[in-house]
Design brief:
Radius of gyration: 36 Å
Helix content: 10-25%
Number of helices: 4
Order of helices and strands: HEEHHEEEHEEEE
Strand order of the largest sheet: 3-9-4
Shape: elongated
Number of strands: 9
Distance between the termini: 39 Å
Largest sheet: 3 strands, antiparallel
């Protein structure tokens, strides 16, 4: 139920407005005049139903204490219900456009952390990314500077990968050929190039010298010390 106050209590509550679509409380016009708002069982239960529904939805048992700022079961329940509407799970990995992890998350930087403080995360990932000190800590995954790739999990692509395993950079093999009918007739293209001059012969020589050919992919493509797609850097974190 959600009471329309002005209809339930005609003359005792103000009509609906943009600020209060269900009507609003009002004062008496003068002492002793019974035209102001008052409370009754249905009104109180209407609001109490909302608060108790929050506790039930969040799975919180009332503690019998009066709520205060900083110690409110109703507020905790509200936050829990909001969180449940977009659930996150220990071990979930996400990227953020900020340089610090949000509450409930840790940087995926390979750090060794407590097995008891982060028990839910330890139960989820164990020592897959490192045993820590072997007894009281374990390692987080280290995603710094890396791309995330979907685990093959039996697929025919990226066969044999273990979950959480690191894979070095690589490029597909680049091959090429060139041929010449005579010395000086070599006409390399693309990544191939002729380097230097003919040594010890000429196109008319009976004992021609060698041609010098080099290969450099940067002649036809952007190159660097690693192979990478166009990308943007975000902070990778893991939920604990």
């Amino acid at each position: 139920m959600s009471l329309k106050l002005n209809e339930r209590y005609p003359g005792r509550f103000d009509n609906p407005s943009s600020q209060y679509p269900q009507g609003s409380f009002k004062n008496r016009s003068a002492p002793g005049v019974l035209d102001g708002s008052y409370l009754e069982k249905d009104w109180a239960n209407d609001k109490e139903g909302l608060f108790q529904s929050l506790l039930v939805a969040a799975g919180i048992t009332p503690n019998g204490q009066v709520d205060t700022v900083g110690s409110s079961q109703y507020f905790t329940a509200l936050l829990q219900v909001i969180s449940n509407s977009s659930p996150t799970y220990p071990g979930q990995v996400a990227s953020f456009a900020r340089d610090t992890p949000p509450e409930g998350w840790l940087k995926a930087n390979g750090a060794a952390v407590s097995r008891t403080v982060y028990a839910d995360l330890f139960n989820a990932i164990g020592t897959r990314f490192g045993p820590g000190n072997g007894t009281t800590t374990f390692n987080l995954p280290d995603a710094r500077g890396l791309f995330v790739r979907g685990w093959s999990d039996g697929a025919t692509t990226d066969v044999g990968r273990a979950l959480g395993s690191l894979q070095a950079d690589a490029v597909q093999n680049i091959t090429g050929t060139f041929r010449a009918k005579s010395v000086g007739d070599i006409k390399p293209t693309g990544a191939f190039a002729q380097v230097g001059e003919i040594v010890g012969g000429s196109t008319d020589s009976a004992t021609p010298g060698p041609e010098h050919i080099s290969f450099d992919a940067s002649r036809v493509a952007r190159t660097s010390t690693e192979t990478r797609p166009v990308n943007i850097a975000f902070l990778i974190c893991i939920k604990f």
